[in-house]
Amino acid sequence: YGAHPLGNGKLYFNAKDSAHGLELWSYDELSLPKMVYDLNVGVNNGSSALGFSNFCMSGGKMYFAGGSAATGIELASYSGTGIPSIIDINPGNFPSYPAGLVDFQGILFFFG
Q: What is the pTM of this model?
């Protein structure tokens, strides 16, 4: 699906396990891979139907398509600490399906 470094010594990628579904995970050479946060709680409720295929760095954050049952698939961001943020472009459970994420001169562009 895809993987992306965030500049903090970790590699970020999507992975699916039997307890959480498809979620954002991280890996560094000092420890085993671990899930960053369970954005959409439940075994069959992974947080991204798009498989986090659209990783993009812009303004020191990693952006990707992700979401929850409450938001649907929306634009999500992660700075490398804390909980990833979901930007609910189309409010409610009406997904915007962001795709084609690209940084151009410090501005994030994408289709939705």
A: 0.80
